[in-house]
Please model this.
Amino acid sequence: MMAEEMIGRKTVDVGDLPSTLFDHRAPLWWGNLWGLAIETAVFGILVSVYFAVAMNLSPFPPPKVDRLPVLNDSLPDLFLPTITLVVLLLSVIPAVWLDVSARRMDERAVKILVIVTLVLNIVLIVLRAFEFKALHFRWDANAYGSITWTILGMHMLHLIVLAAEDVYVTVWTYARGLDQKHALDITVTAVYWYWIAGTWVLLYTLVYFGPRII
Amino acid sequence: MTEEELNKIQSSQITPERMEEERRDLEQTWSEPKGIVGWFSATDHKTIGLRIIVTAFIFFALGGVLALFMRLQLMNPENGILGPDLYNQFFTTHGSSMMFLFAVPVMEGMGIYLVPLMVGTRNVAFPRLNALGYYVYLIGGILLYVGLLLNVGPDAGWFAYVPLSGPEYGIGKRVDLWSQMVSLTEVAALIGAVNIIVTVFKFRAPGMSLNRIPLFVWSEVIASFMVIFAMPAVMISSSLLSMDRLTHVSTHFFNQAEGGDPILWQHLFWFFGHPEVYIIFIPATGFVSMIVTTFSRRKTFGYTALVLTMIATGFIGFGVWVHHMFATPLPQLGQSIFTASSMLIVIPNGVQIFCWLVTLWSGRLNIKAPLVFVFGFFVIFVLGGLTGVMLASVPLDLQLHDTFFVVAHLHYVLIGGAVFPLFGAIYYWFPKWTGRMLSEGAGLVNFVLLFIGFNMVFFPMHILGLNGMPRRIYTYVAETGWGDLNMLATIGAFVMGLAVLTFIANVAYSIKFGAVAGENPWGADTLEWSIASPPPSYNYQYIPVVQGRHALWSRTKDAPVVTGLHVNIREILATTIHDAMPEHKYDLQGPSLIPFFVALIVGAMFIGFMFTPWSLPIGMALLFIGFFAWFWSNSVGDRPPFMPAEENPTAGDSMPNEPAEATA
Model:
């Protein structure tokens, strides 16, 4: 545009507008949301693979024949996986609290809660690592073992990524204090946390109750 | 900011001196660093977009050369130019590079270049992520061709059906190269898709409400949504395949003996593969809408219908994948449903064609090279659509499955539906990119050669297919009688090659000696034509306020502009999703080398996974370090993340850094 054209033109002054807003007004929030849409699609595909495998195997789950006596009733254990689920659901409470504290710019609460959530996150990863045993099959035993390991592993990967984000936020808040930008980061990480807990309710039901129903 | 406030515009504070001063500051703030380090740190959407487009065209040319070799091999019966093994590698690499390395990336590259300009902002929402996407895509592409040069090019076809591609028959690392290339390029595609969607959602110029978004931008958004829901299917399926193939992992997803299922592969692949066709085609319809409107010199007929049909195509596109699998044992009801949905998709596409025809019919035509390519698109794409309706019917498909008829159909749809509009788009936007026009005369020669060459190659393939010539055979005997038509096709392929050479020569000449284009050589209606060609690094000195659907045609002489954005940091304006009312100011990240290094780690991790599963944990650990540095440097770069109010020349009384929640 030529300079002359601009002179005397009316203007919309946006100088007073804020620099950081939360939730659906934040670009980062949308970026995270569509990222989670991608990951939801990933789990959707894995769930459909699970059903395809279930259709192929009869009985389902298949008997465990690599040792004597043969284990005909090879349903996955419920005890440890259910503990993991409960811990995961309980961990949502401090996550919500952290979310709210970040919005209030309550630096003291944030500093405590990032540590609490990080510890819970690590506990969850350790619990999940033991959870693979409850499946009774290795990933290379059969397609049922392959898909259940992949679903658990994929979800564990999200727990690890979440822990990595937690570490970043923790280091930042202790080194530099809490600012608007990182408060936004914390609220977006909280959305990720809720998504991880929510998807696991569905995936847990599929992996541990699917074989009992199908 | 509400609509009322937007209308309560202030009288201008713009003076020539202040304008020049701000322009210099913007130039300094937004310019890209120079030198080799600067090259690898670039984050400008125009730089990255052009790189993607140029890289995609290089892969297009390489894939084309492979096609020429295939045509030479098939020219005569029992020809011996390529052996069967090399022929397999060539057709697989040809298909893979055209689909994964050319068509999808070039459409996204066009979006990454044009979308921020068309919506009136200064960069994409996540510029560093954008750079990461480019490097990851480049690594994937190089991987495929290095494989071919080392004689370990993939050889199981671009859709790599198991068990041929599985651990039992697909020996060596050939298929692993393919599946890692697929994963890398799809990561890049997903990054681009999220970037485009968020840019359009949050960074449209004030006044560009949903019903005023240019049709090309709509097409990019819809295609990006399709990427988000389709690409995971191929990423997962190719990852499952590489886990099946990898020693010491050896899962059984596609192993029938252990409860796996080879047909499952086809479902997963085509659940991605068919939407992929529309991921390529929908942006091309966006080109067509823009070109038809500009060169008809009238408002687009049926804007709403065009947007809705693109959305409808996007949805139906997810419900037709099984028509690639009619030759597998499917339930008959399933076959009927997918026949119906495959025919259904003709309706939105038909509506689109009629909208364009009405626009052209009632317009004052300005027949230039871009429009001529669109005419070619109409003819070829409609022919491809007709054979598509034929193939949607199960009995005919069973007869024609895996014959050259299918090869003819898919090239009519993809070259007609995507490559012709793409060439048109290049002729259309080249002046904006370079400041110079492509030669019209050479453009017409380019079109005529491409159109004639294309029909010479692919029309005979319909007949060859009907005569029973299967695809993916490296030779045939003379008694089949297929020799003459194959010779014709081979001659046509070289005519097409000549067309592409004309294009390259035109670009090479015009970039230096072409006529100077000016801001708006075509008299077009979208925002990118209101600024210099090539656009300055900051795109718009003042973000424009949009007053109508055809931004420049409906603009009044005293149209207001946005002021009050910082010129010393990379600040852009975020607006509301529906009405694009100013909402907040947003800091963008500047140039950085980190995305390049993160891309190297991602590449090494995926390539390493061909050999050992340990590449995953090691890669993840390195990625953690990479992303930690990335996030940290986002916040503590050389620019202050937030400007204190007293340094802000345009701030009013309220604190600009306080969020609404804190002040409320």
The longest strand of chain B covers residues 582-587. Chain B has one domain: 17-366+518-646.
